[in-house]
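[scheduler] slot 2 assigned
[scheduler] job type: sequence-to-structure, two independent chains
[scheduler] chain ordering preserved from manifest
[runner] begin chain α
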Amino acid sequence: MKYRNHITLTLLFSLASTFSVAQTFLVLEKMGTKKRFVFNIGEQINYQLVGQKSKEMRLLTNILDSAFVVNNDTIPFSTISMVNIGNKRQSGILTTAGPILIYAGVIILAIDFINRGLVQEGEYTWDSGIGLTSAALVTSGALIMVLRKNKKKIGSNGWWRLRKATIY
């Protein structure tokens, strides 16, 4: 009898906890692949509306079936043309590689200028090897920064879509 009451209470609490724990979030996913980015309630979302040039960054306060709410404004998924996912990137090496390569190219050129002009007390002459190395580093860093697309187009002209997801 004593164990039956414990088992009954344990089952009751476990069932009650499964009903009370549900998480709703906004998913930006690429159709046909497993690529996706998750926006939880309370996070900043950066989006652009159809027909507008400016982007808006707002706090996500609620997620409805076909819209989300930011600062008491309901934004339907169909009115969004682009979402910026720059703050959702997880890859640390590619995020930092672009600026580091640019800085390295500029620093190599500055060190060469200081070495030849001030330390050796001579007139600065252009060294094509240093210039080529510096230009290659700056160019590769800039290409990494430009080619990393943080903006995902949504709708008919893009493969990405927004949807509501709930985990129970």
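[runner] end chain α
[runner] begin chain β
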Amino acid sequence: MAPHEKLSRIYDRALSVGVESLSTDERELYLIQDFIIELEMGGLSGYFYNRLPIKGQIPGAVVAMRKYGLDELAELVGEALQIFGPYAESSSAKSWSEVLQQLDPGSRLAVIEERIDAIDNYGLHKSLIT
């Protein structure tokens, strides 16, 4: 089974019966597919907007990416995560746009997204996902 097929099957199963029904390895693969879907639907900014409030989800995705050989992707997502190191929902920012103005005034997130887009199929063809 191709990596993208395995990721899709695990993700679909998680949606139908719950993430808690997945094994530890499957949950890691779920985080990778969740990243891919969020990126494709809302870009890197959308991924961070939706996932930052979920404690540990983004670092967990980075760890999973490394475990399964998606090192370049993991490095870039980790770099983007560093932008949001000082992020807290209780910050003075009232909107996501204000959060980005405060934490990413140089628009580094957009540059990182371009670098991710340049990775052929997120590196899945070279991954350890079998």
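[runner] end chain β
[qc] chain β: The mean pLDDT is 94.
[scheduler] slot 2 released
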